[in-house]
Design a protein that fits this description.
The complex is a heterodimer.
Chain A (H helix, E strand, L loop, with lengths): L5 E2 L2 E2 L16 H6 L8 H4 L3 H11 L11 H6 L9 E7 L8 H8 L1 H15 L1 E8 L4 H16 L15 E6 L9 H8 L23 E5 H5 L1 H12 L10 E6 L7 E6 L4 H7 L7 E5 L8 E2 H6 L4 H6 L8 E6 L4 H15 L5 H21 L4 H13 L6 H15 L1 H9 L20
Helix pairs in contact in A: 3-6, 3-10, 5-7, 14-15, 14-17, 15-16, 16-17
Chain B lengths: L2 H5 L15 H8 L3 H10 L7 H12 L4 H11 L3 H10 L11 E6 L2 H5 L2 H12 L12 E6 L11 E3 L2 E2 L27 H15 L45 E8 L2 E7 L6 E7 L7 E6 L5 E5 L5 E9 L11 E4 L34
Parallel strand pairs in B: 1-2
Antiparallel strand pairs in B: 1-3, 3-4, 5-6, 6-9, 7-8, 7-10, 10-11
Classes of the chains: A alpha/beta, B alpha+beta.
Chain lengths: 442, 367
């Protein structure tokens, strides 16, 4: 299914999906015919690091991996010319439930990622960069290695790129299956040969990250937007979206729409309009998870109000996250969805901080018991309490991400949980907590 | 790991280690990978960073990661065996017991759940005659439930061995290249019929062979190339970057605003600048005079121009040893002095030098 090029008479942005539908677009030959690596020349090498960082700051580009942190600002935190190496690490550990855009990017247009990395590497003083790819994505690792081999052969990587005095090497690092390695300090630990457990911050990676040197960790999609900005300027990138959320973004749509897939649209498009672009909703909307499983769920009314940008979702106490959009209709059971999400977080907690390690498992066990018919009257408050207690008591953003779906589902779809509980004839008896507590499992 | 796994000897790593597999034998078997290991050593500033990658090589060779393979990986990565063992335990993709010839992974998370993962898993358990986590008696298939595989649009997500499956069964990585057909078929969703075709195809392909196999494709991607590595890597030949591979940073966003005869000049410059020189030209840029010499922190200065007199300004940024190209030139014309203040004194008299905002009338009639 080719990506739509126009929507309601207007051209859709073509920053990231440029080669998605072009046969052979992953090869250097075809990619170059479509403008790949045009910036790797005077456009880049006549610029200073400062100009490039200012350019990215001016473009308003924000991190597309989930947190939405301004990319230019992240880059500006890196101390330059200290004599220490600076590392650029691409986060391709895509694993937020609902997200599948980076898989497509790496398969279809690996050269755009490499081009973006050359620009970012030049701007930050990076000599060696790594692409940390999720272990399950071996076909994507192959695609990247093929593209890197081509780029080396064409003098686009290695020493003295295109005759300039800049040298960059890029290596692919294969992960081995851990959601937490998508957290930037967990990713750095995994790159260094440790368990992927996040580090306490500060020091922030920009000061002391990989191998105790300044490190920038950026998502695949973030870096892929950089060549466009260098070629067309910050203003051109701002033609889409809002002042605070400029540009375009890839959205991975699954759930109850007619045509799920990866779409590139301007930020700030209303969700309901976006669903039309995706072929329309299947059935009657009950709710929508707007930014991957960590993002607090929206009910139907909120979804109708929301637009796809950082501020609109923040005002609804949710988040744009990684751009994974999962609407679900009235035939779906929010209790089962939350049970699945809670199990996911219990499984993926790295085990480092007690509140998260024990709390996510506790919530998972209680919810499973509710679903299997053992619900008790106080259970909704119990799991919400648990989520509240691990939300901000750990060293990384995993625990809040695990707490938000719990808090939002039980608040916005409370009646569904009550219905499960009231089916248990003994629901008013107090829960035998001992059997659910962490200690009972060790 | 659940306690149920430990009760079943086939799933207990402690019970499945081949008695005759020694460190010497692993070294000999991994010897053909030495060129690849040398390349990995070059790529990172410390040997420890290759640990995850060499564990992948062990899994490629053996089809799983035996304990002695962990010991060997620790040796190669210059870490303690206990460190390597902890890493293997942490990541889910290292198989500590020999899996079947083909590993079938079905995603059970949120998006796949609503797309019917539970009924697909039930079908597969029935067809293969094993529960999730188990391996078929003929050693051909292992079936596992996994969390999100990033296949949410074409769910339920199913991977067999190293790739997400598409509708048409084919030999997995037969020529060393993995293809993901599902990317071209957004309407494709693995269902019971598709899975039956895949399993029957793979069964016919395997013939009488069972058990874990050496993978035909590299666990670290196709055709690993030979690089110069990281400047601090073991036996690497890469040279570090020179400190001046880029031109010196010019000042940006130069602006000059006239308020009466006072000219406010502002710009942004790199914090690393050693010296900033602001220059003025009264002859359309033919000649320049130094107006001010400043530090990197200042980023503004001022001048005076009488009514109707124009001048050009530019900013020159200097590093310790290099000068940046001059900034863009701005032209500004002095204005007549501002009109005398309105009779009603505004509550907050404008700060000297600030741009007056004539569009906002002073609040009238307010206390």
């Amino acid at each position: 299914m080719p990506h739509p090029t126009h929507w309601k008479g207007k051209e859709l942005p073509n920053v990231l999906r440029r080669l998605f539908d072009v046969p052979g677009g992953h090869t250097l030959e075809v990619a170059r015919k479509h403008g790949a690596y045009e910036t790797i020349g005077a456009a880049l090498f006549d610029k200073s690091q400062f100009e490039l960082i200012e350019l990215v700051k001016d473009s308003g580009l924000r991190g597309r991996g989930g947190a939405g942190f301004p990319t230019g600002m992240k880059w500006s935190f890196v101390p330059r010319n200290t004599g220490k190496p600076v590392y650029l690490v691409i986060n391709a550990d895509e694993g937020e439930p609902g997200t599948f855009k980076d898989r497509l990017c790496m398969t279809r247009d690996p050269h755009l990622l490499i081009e973006g990395m050359i620009i970012a590497g030049y701007a930050l003083g990076v000599r060696t960069a790594y692409i940390y790819v999720r272990g399950e994505m071996l076909p994507q690792i192959q695609a990247l290695n093929r593209a890197l081999t081509e780029a080396y052969a064409a003098g686009l990587l290695g020493e003295n790129i295109q005759g300039s005095s800049y040298s960059l090497d890029i290596y692919v690092h294969r992960g081995a299956g851990a959601y937490i390695c998508g957290e930037e300090t967990g990713l750095i630990n995994s790159l260094e040969g440790f368990k992927g457990q996040p580090r306490l911050k500060p020091p922030f990676p920009a000061i002391s990250g990989a191998f105790a040197a300044p490190t920038v960790v950026n998502n695949v999609e973030t870096i892929m937007a950089v060549p466009y900005i260098l070629k067309n300027g910050a203003k051109a990138y701002g033609q889409w979206g809002t002042a605070k959320s400029p540009g375009s973004k890839l959205f991975s749509v699954s759930g109850d729409v007619k045509k799920p897939g990866v779409y590139e649209v301007p930020l700030a498009m209303p969700y309901m309009e976006f669903f039309e672009l995706c072929g329309g909703l299947d059935g009657e909307l009950l709710g929508c998870i707007p930014g991957g499983s960590s993002a607090p769920v929206l009910n139907a009314e909120e979804t109708r109000k929301a637009t796809m940008d950082y501020e609109s979702l923040a005002s609804l106490k949710s988040m744009l996250g990684s751009g994974a959009v999962t609407p679900f209709n009235t035939t779906r059971d929010p209790v089962l969805i939350l049970e699945s999400v809670a199990r996911f977080y219990a499984h993926e907690s790295c085990g480092q901080c007690t509140p998260c390690r024990e709390g996510t498992g506790y919530v998972d066990r209680v919810l499973r018991n509710v679903v299997s018919g053992g619900g008790r009257t106080g259970d909704i408050d119990l799991i919400k309490d648990l989520a509240d207690s691990y939300e901000w008591t750990t060293i990384c953003a995993f625990a809040p991400g695990a707490a938000w779906p719990v808090q939002s589902f039980v608040t916005k779809f409370r009646s569904y949980f009550e219905a499960y509980i009231s089916k248990n004839p003994e629901h008013s008896e107090s829960r035998p907590l001992v059997a659910m507590r962490p200690g009972a499992f060790w | 790991m659940s306690s149920a796994g430990l009760v079943d000897p086939a799933r207990n790593p402690a019970k499945v280690q081949p008695a005759d597999l020694t460190l010497e034998k692993v070294r000999a078997r991994m010897a053909p990978y030495q060129a690849q290991i040398d390349e990995l050593w070059r790529r990172y500033p410390v040997k420890r960073a290759v640990l995850l990658q060499v564990l992948w090589l062990v899994q490629q060779e053996f089809g799983w990661v035996p304990r002695v393979g962990i010991e060997w990986s620790a040796e190669v990565s210059a870490v303690a065996p206990s460190h390597a063992f902890g890493v293997v335990e942490f990541y889910t993709m290292y198989k500590q017991v020999p899996p079947g010839r083909h590993l079938v992974q079905v995603c059970q998370t949120m998006c796949c759940l609503v797309q019917g993962s539970e009924s697909l898993i039930e079908h597969l358990e029935h067809k293969l005659g094993v529960h999730c986590g188990g391996t078929t008696a003929d050693g051909l298939f292992s079936l596992v439930r996994v969390e999100c595989l990033a296949l949410c649009g074409t769910g339920p997500g199913v991977m067999i061995d190293d790739q997400a499956i598409g509708p048409v069964p084919h030999e997995l990585g037969g020529d060393g290249v993995l293809a993901e057909q599902h990317l071209d078929k957004p309407d494709f969703h693995p269902d019971a019929a598709v899975m039956d075709q895949w399993l029957d195809f793979l069964k016919a392909k395997a013939g009488a062979s069972t058990g874990p196999v050496k993978q035909v494709h590299s666990a670290l991607g196709e055709k690993p190339f030979i690089s110069k590595g990281h400047p601090q890597g073991t036996a690497a030949s890469a040279k570090p970057l020179s400190a001046t591979y880029f031109p010196a940073a010019p000042a940006l966003k130069v602006a000059a605003v006239a308020t009466g005869d006072a000219i406010a000049i502002s710009w942004v410059n790199d914090a690393a600048c050693a010296k900033i020189v602001v220059e003025r030209s009264d002859d359309q840029g033919a000649s320049w005079k130094v107006l001010a010499t400043l530090t990197a922190k200042d980023q503004k200065t001022s001048d005076k121009l009488s009514d109707g007199v124009s001048a050009q300004y530019r900013v020159l940024a200097h590093e310790k040893e290099r000068a940046a190209r001059p900034s863009a030139v701005v032209t500004v014309t002095g204005k007549p002095p501002p009109p005398p203040p309105a009779p009603a004194t505004p509550p907050n008299p404008p700060v000297t030098g600030a741009t007056p905002s004539p569009s906002t009338p002073p609040p009238a009639g307010k206390p």
